Amino acid sequence: MSFLTPRLFAIANMISDREVVADIGTDHAYLSIYLAKDKRASKIFATDINEKPLAVAKNNIMSFGVADKIELLLADGIEWIREKDLKISSCIMAGMGSGTILKILEDDCKNIDCYVISSNTDVEPIRKWAKSKKYFIEREEIILDNDIIYEIIKINKFAGQKIKTKEDLIFGPILYKTKHNQYFLTKWMEEEQKLTTLLNQIPKNEKKYKEFLKRKNIITKMLKKENSN
């Protein structure tokens, strides 16, 4: 399906065969359609907070002949999963900022086993949330889509890598320990440069200066280690 972006492909690849999936903020339902056509999901609940994209999604679903596998819902967040007492294997959230995602995650419940998340902003707050809940990171990917670097993480409530260190929070426990690709290095070289610029603009006696300096030193140490390999 050529209309899937690299980010949506990467998200789809984190879904195992025959899962029950919730696609939060489905928009035009392209990801849901792919999961249904590729038989990665046996049932998909695709939601949006607006009726207009759901109407477009309905037409797309009918065109691809997967209406029997995808149920469209006008809904905000994930509270409806508990209310309907559904069992969801993986709940997907993409195309939103970390603040919005964290707000949605306030309704986390036992009915959901995993979350597949691709935030438009910094992923570290999502990892902090997972750590606070004592959840695990099952998979992590970093990809380039339309000249933007995205991290995609799969949080599993029962198995995976624990988040133990500050490095795990910043870089990801899997991305940090596996072979780093060019997108990973580019992302953190750019972040290092941004922090250097900020440090040159902030008085050294301000609290933010110490916070930024500590973060920059962690990134610089990682990059030096990677470049020496």
TrEMBL record:
Transferase recorded as keyword: yes
PANTHER family: TRNA (ADENINE(22)-N(1))-METHYLTRANSFERASE (PTHR38451)
Organism field: Spiroplasma chinense
Keywords: Methyltransferase, Transferase
Pfam (any one): TrmK
InterPro entries according to UniProt: SAM-dependent_MTases_sf (IPR029063), TrmK (IPR006901)
Record field: transmembrane: none
GO molecular function per UniProt: tRNA (adenine(22)-N1)-methyltransferase activity
GO biological process: methylation
Protein name: tRNA (Adenine22-N1)-methyltransferase
Listed SUPFAM superfamilies: S-adenosyl-L-methionine-dependent methyltransferases (SSF53335)
